């Protein structure tokens, strides 16, 4: 079966490897050069690099028997575009879900904007929600922001656009150990940690444990509603020869 898999996520890479091992022809589509770089040495099949709009997706999909959406749990726009593109192209779609983490002890909010509003008069804060979300914190003093972002030009540009001092920018590729997270919280005297629920594969558990260790409160951005299959469920359906149905 020819499969087009969207997502440079950890579980997306693992799924691609296992699908190839089952004898499927898999092409992986990633949004950035960094995503393609991470795939090197881990996936031997074709890799498409660059963000696609709905039109580009719909044009590409008819060449495949199945599409798998393994994008990040918070990549709502891409997931909706894939649903529309697969429906237009008549290609079955499966959504790979990432297991959620616990919310105990966290302040849970619906958006980065809500987190920023709450933190108007607080101390140093570390947003680990991604460079694309930094605009939500624009009203806060730049000196208080210690964003942890990917080490890319786009991430650095987003930080510079808000006037964040370069000494505050933590441009690193994760996931990180609990010890590494704790060391960063201590080094920069972080008073608040803002995060998404990236799940175990995204390093959330180590991040949360480090915050607990350092006594740093965690503000957790609630996950968007989603539905789909776990990796094992998806693989089992393909092993059984079932033709997946388009979701939603």
Q: Please, could you describe this protein's structure?
A:
This protein is of the alpha/beta class and 248 residues long. 35% of the residues lie in helices and 16% in strands. It has nine helices and eleven strands. The chain has helices spanning 10-21, 33-39, 54-60, 76-89, 112-118, 153-161, 178-187, 204-214, 231-239; strands at residues 2-6, 25-30, 47-49, 66-69, 93-95, 107-109, 125-127, 148-149, 170-171, 192-196, 218-221. The strands form three sheets. It has a five-stranded parallel sheet, sandwiched between helices. Strands 6-11-10-7 form a four-stranded parallel sheet. Strands 8-9 form a two-stranded parallel ribbon. The longest helix is centred in the first third of the chain and has 14 residues, at 76-89. It is elongated, with a radius of gyration of 19 Å. The relative contact order is 0.16.
First-to-last CA distance = 22 Å
Number of strand segments: 11
Overall SS class: alpha/beta
Tell me the β content: 15-25%
Q: Work out the helicity level.
A: 25-40%
Strand order of the largest sheet: 3-2-1-4-5
The general outline is elongated
Q: Can you tell me the residue ranges where pLDDT is under 50 for at least 5 consecutive residues? A: 244-248
Mean pLDDT: 91
Give the number of helices.
Answer: 9
The radius of gyration over CA amounts to: 19 Å
Order of helices and strands: EHEHEHEHEEHEEHEHEHEH
The profile of the biggest β sheet is: 5 strands, parallel
